[in-house]
Design brief:
There is one protein chain. Helix content is 25%, strand content 20%. By secondary structure, it is α/β, with parallel strands linked by helices. It has 3 domains: 87 residues, Recoverin, domain 1, CATH 1.10.238; 250 residues, TIM Barrel; 136 residues, Immunoglobulin-like, CATH 2.60.40. The strands form 5 sheets. A 5-stranded mixed sheet has the order 8-9-10-1-11. A 4-stranded antiparallel sheet has the order 15-12-19-18. Strands 14-13-16-17 form a 4-stranded antiparallel sheet. Its main location: membrane. Its cofactor is Ca(2+). One of its GO terms (molecular function) is phosphatidylinositol-4,5-bisphosphate phospholipase C activity. Its EC number is 3.1.4.11.
Length: 583
């Protein structure tokens, strides 16, 4: 009761008060060093700071710098309660430079100073098998896997986020409203959506976020058709720009009727890419098998149809398939055997986990030339996801996720694909692509000795007062923020740290540094989360996840996102990153 009364009194006496703590010592020292001990940092001094301290290779002239700083000054002025002529602000900068407060605001507010490069910079000319691909699972579902509606909206949202692999389950339909084909999660109580609606949305939004190719079930001028019956090496993302490719099991069989959708026992999913329905207008639909014991995997077809017109349609459609789904029967050793023909294999998360324990080397060798897809187990009825590292550590290119869900696993997925300009393709590390000396392959359970140290310093945070209501975190006092910083990657690299709690402030200054010793930085992600300390469960205040190998060194503005991965308008952290290589 006493604490409650004190908080009420503080609220009444400090209402509307805005207090910002003293700038961190590192920032003041850097400013003083490059400003020559003066109170203003001139334009040429700021340019030297950007090149020498921040390592900005794309800012080489005063003209380049002026464009960035003037944009920042105008943006800050537009957000200020006291408006000043934009021309006057720019004139002051050109004559006097930046003050210490200007300098700090410049580092934390402007988009150019983000933690990652915003352009595609990986080599995009290697075969598709050399890349991790941003992959969706049951991309048309709006919610859970059993009873939610099917729609094109989740597909549009996924494409806007940069997802490059869209999954559609196509079934024949007797309804005149569905063009003879419906998109639906088979044998569940999910509602269907017309295939034409999904295909049109894919066509409209396929290259909204990225120019690099999509794998999906779609037809049109953008479709890539292989010149041969099979491929011995996959084409590169660069050669497939603005193209759409089909990945499925080549058809052999036609079913004769629309199947009744029934819920599967234990929420398990029927298999994927097995059989084909009756002849469909202008298209051929991928159907689910009747075998209820399999789960989303590529199954071998049994050819039971002698209909010549159907067989002609099959041959025509087969020619459109760029990435052939392979067999998934037999022992795991046989499934992972390499062949002259390259192919795609699908495994459930359970089977991949089992295979990683007994056939880890085979998995990596398989994914050096072929494509492996891993999908959520059928028990994930609520559209949850598994930890993606179960796939990435073994070179799995398509880690298929339920994008309509949210949670820590999806944040890791979003973090991985912020790399390479967010284009949806991330080049795998060389040790997953090439065989090591003596025919060895990478073993995530036995990583090399520590080779790098990442130093992460958390200076301050800002923007909550703009993006949240005054009573969002606490009715009678400002928030009590702290920041959690952790590494996710190979087991030997995983580590966690957190700052002290800064009480009663919307503008926390922590000024704390953490060190992380790394063995496989190429696969590591840096997780950052801010929380408001509370008596019960601490309140969420923002998060982000960043690919460690892509971090830009120096002082960086790190924008935070909500639980589902939507970027806040104003909430940012000012941090410093430094990666040191050990001898």
């Amino acid at each position: 009761m006493e604490t409650y009364i004190i908080k009420v009194l503080n609220f009444l006496t400090k209402k509307g008060e805005v207090y910002k703590a003293e700038p961190p010592l590192d920032l003041k020292e850097a400013f003083s060093k490059f400003a020559g001990g003066e109170n203003q940092m001139k334009k040429d001094q700021l340019l030297r700071f950007m090149v020498e301290h921040q390592g900005e290779n794309n800012i080489s002239t005063m003209e380049d710098l002026d464009k960035i700083v003037e944009k920042f000054l105008q943006l800050r002025n537009s957000c200020s309660s006291t408006k000043t002529s934009s021309t006057r602000i720019v004139d002051v900068y050109r004559k006097q430079g930046l003050s210490l407060n200007d300098f700090i605001d410049f580092l934390i507010l402007d988009d150019f100073n983000g933690p990652l490069k915003d352009k595609v910079h990986h080599d995009m000319n290697a075969p598709l098998s050399h890349y991790f691909m941003y992959t969706g699972h049951n991309s048309y579902l709006t919610g859970n896997q059993l009873t939610s509606e099917s729609s094109d909206e989740p597909i549009i949202e996924a494409l806007k986020q940069g997802v490059r692999v869209i999954e559609l389950d196509l079934w024949p339909s007797k309804s005149s409203n569905n063009d003879g084909i419906k998109v639906v999660h088979g044998r569940t109580f999910t509602t269907p959506v017309p295939v034409s609606k999904c295909l049109q949305s894919i066509k409209d939004y396929a290259f909204h976020k990225s120019d690099y190719p999509m794998a999906t079930e779609i037809f049109g001028e953008m479709l890539y058709c292989p010149e041969t019956d099979y491929l011995t090496e996959f084409p590169s993302p660069e050669s497939l720009k603005k193209r759409i490719i089909i990945s499925t099991k080549p058809p052999k069989e036609y079913q004769q009727s629309d199947s009744i959708r029934k819920p599967m026992p234990n929420g398990s999913e029927p298999s994927e890419e097995e059989s084909w329905g009756p002849e469909l207008p202008d298209s051929v639909a991928k159907l689910k098998t009747e075998d209820r014991n399999s789960s989303d995997e590529d199954q071998e077809d049994i050819n039971t149809s002698d209909n010549k017109s159907n067989q002609q349609g099959v041959r025509q459609y087969k020619h459109l398939i760029a990435i052939h789904g392979g067999k998934s029967k037999g022992s795991m050793k046989n499934r992972l055997k390499d062949d002259v023909k390259v192919r795609r294999l699908s495994l459930s998360e359970k089977k991949l986990k089992s295979a990683s324990e007994s056939h880890g080397a085979d998995l990596i060798r398989f994914t050096q030339r072929n494509i492996l897809r891993v999908f959520p187990k059928g028990e994930r009825v609520k559209s949850t996801n598994f930890r993606p590292y179960i796939g990435w550590l073994y070179g799995v290119q398509m880690v298929a996720f339920n994008m309509q869900g949210h949670g820590k696993s999806l944040r890791l997925m979003q973090g991985m694909f912020r790399a390479n300009g967010g284009c949806g393709y991330v080049k795998k590390p060389e040790f997953l692509i090439r065989t090591l000396p003596h025919e060895e392959v990478f073993d995530p359970k036995k990583p090399p000795s520590r080779k790098q140290i990442l130093k992460v310093k958390v200076y301050k945070g800002d923007g909550w007062r703009l993006d949240f209501s005054p009573t969002h975190f606490d009715r009678f006092s400002p928030p009590d923020f702290y920041t959690k910083v952790s590494i996710v990657g190979v087991p030997a690299d995983c580590a966690k740290n957190k700052t002290r709690v800064k009480t009663d402030t919307w503008y926390p200054v922590w000024d704390e540094e953490f060190e992380f010793k790394l063995r496989v930085p190429e696969l590591a992600l840096l997780r950052i989360e801010v929380k408001d300390k509370d008596k019960g469960k601490d309140d969420f205040a923002g998060q982000t996840c960043l690919p460690l190998s892509e971090l830009r060194h120096g002082f960086r503005s790190v924008p935070l996102y909500d639980r589902k991965g939507k970027k806040y308008k104003s909430v940012t952290l000012l941090m410093r990153f430094k990666l040191e290589t050990l001898n």
